[in-house]
Batch of 2 targets.
Target 1
Amino acid sequence: MFALLRPGRLAHIGTWFPSSCAVCGRWPSPPSGEPVCHDCRLAFAPATTRCPTCALALPPDKPACAACSTADHAFRACFAAVDYTYPWRDLLHRFKFASQPAWARWFASMMWDQPGLRDAALACDWWLPIPLSRQRLAQRGYNQSWELTHALWRQAQRAAPQPHAFGACSARCDVLLKVMDTAEQHTLDRSKRLANLRAAFAVNPAALPAMQGKSVLLVDDVMTTGATMHLAARTLLNAGAASVTGAVFARTPAPEVS
Ligand SMILES: [Zn+2]
Ligand SMILES: [Zn+2]
């Protein structure tokens, strides 16, 4: 009984009741529990061509962004559901800082609908979130990236034709660690982010033997410059992962990406 009263569970109670659309305010937001109405989703989340290795929005006739065409990159592939613009920027801020972890299920369903993500995700052995430091986790009470990772994993379970068809993938929050607290990344430019992050990630030593040769799906809520995702992916590859595929809910569009 007491388990039902834990804060993480109480947050999900809001998904059982109708609510107004978090964008246009229309009530109720159909179906019950979804934060954004169908019309707003159609209007603000159009199908978008994206760079296959960094998920940057591209013109439909362009196969890859300039940076990924010339530079070495850590990802086998990368997916994003929306651009990090209105209204998603505000919704993600509320998801992250205003105690709305239950929205992860809806965000994950939008990620799951992106072309190519399902096959790429199901080909990965481990589904890992970008971690928070202990201090940040204690402040916020939950890691929004883990909420998304777990919601994606549940989505895949529900979509599997038979239970055993989903046996190979596991979602884990104990593999990639944030061993150093860093300043709020969104306040820094790219060079400062890299310097700040370079020593921030590590693989749990207990997971190292099992890491060898694993294919990893790395999940985060937002990719802005890509510095966080790339350094985390490099950490996993240096620790023995065979490949890393990225999946984020929102991707900052050019020209903010450097
Ligand atoms: Zn709406
Ligand atoms: Zn790219």
Note: The domain at 46-251 is CATH 3.40.50 (Rossmann fold).
Target 2
Amino acid sequence: MVISCCDSRVHVTAIFGAEQGEFFIHRNIANLVPAYLPDGEPHGTSAAVEYAVSALNVSHIIVLGHSSCGGVKGCHDMCTGLAPELEKSSSFVGRWMDILRPGFEKVKHMPDEAERVARLEREAVMVSIENLMTFPFVKSALDKK
Ligand SMILES: [Zn+2]
């Protein structure tokens, strides 16, 4: 399974030299995985992870981040007050980017904005991997190797 960004510049099969259909690919804004939250609400990314692990028995999950990510920059701008529209409860993008707020907390001390945003792109991968580990079926599959 590959979890990558919606960004049209990120072509997963081209990066890995794979054929179409070779990977189970899920794309969303900023390649984020939310924490496990079985609240009865619809969760597209969590559904994709569940299906990949529990039904397809994928052997690996790759979280593929990328540079110049508009989603990550949006999170950065939201967290620094530059994008107040993303703070509205009605913003789907803003509420999605809330997943990355813990990552922003780790980089907010960095003085250079470009370096801070680039580091936040890496944090998007790390936060997603940490959140993957909150899914009991992912943890269980890892324990079974
Ligand atoms: Zn992106």
Note: The radius of gyration is 16 Å.
